[in-house]
């Protein structure tokens, strides 16, 4: 009974608040400037709180759900990871004129050698029925006077825990571009003072792309593996929009011959 009474009181307060703001909006053209300035200040305070609520609510109520870590995994997969950008909201979802070595979230950095940056980044919400990642990353590249553009993603310590030369690492991506371009994936494994690099070109003849990195063909020291990171390198990105809908990494032991 008490809950129903509180609910009725809450709805009545909400109705009165809406009525007050509606009346204020209708009278805004004729109010004196002192009163109008006060109402503007109060409206801005309300808007900040409402925008924050709407941002969180729309993120939680849209599909796929934020925090969802559904990943397509190969048979016998023993590690899988979706980086932060595609997994949850980051603090600054959009930025323009992105300079080299700009951090984007806590895991990623942008590198390029442009004299004048005309690159924008924005984290976008995935809402298609077949999307597994809650978020995507959109890169808009206008004039590009540099020779390279790369997105570097640091991977967690778990990526190298138990990693052996018998493992195959797999990168799955969903990529959309306005016009064709070459994209390379470079897996970097630091072991002691050395860093092993494995480069694969992404076959962009389909939106869902997969490449594999077989550690059997590397010279990685299993006993000294320290960290791992992924570079996504974009060749000739000028006047293009690149949308990375999803990026995931998985690993599995290689089948013995």
Summarize the structure.
Helix content is 23%, strand content 37%.
What Rg do the Cα atoms give?
24 Å
Largest sheet: 7 strands, antiparallel
Low-confidence stretches: none
Q: Strand portion, in percent?
A: 35-45%
Determine the structural class based on helices, strands and strand pairing.
Answer: alpha+beta
Helical content class: 10-25%
Q: How many β-strand stretches?
A: 13
- Envelope shape: elongated
Order of helices and strands: HHEHEEEEEEEEEEEE
> Kindly state the mean pLDDT as a whole number?
87
- From the N-terminal CA to the C-terminal CA, the straight-line distance is 71 Å
- How many individual helices? 3
Describe how the helices and strands are arranged.
Layout (H helix, E strand, L loop, with lengths): L1 H26 L5 H29 L17 E3 L2 H4 L6 E3 L5 E3 L3 E5 L6 E7 L9 E7 L7 E6 L12 E11 L4 E10 L2 E8 L6 E7 L10 E11 L4 E14 L4
Antiparallel strand pairs: 1-13, 2-5, 3-4, 4-7, 5-6, 6-13, 7-12, 8-11, 8-13, 9-10, 9-12
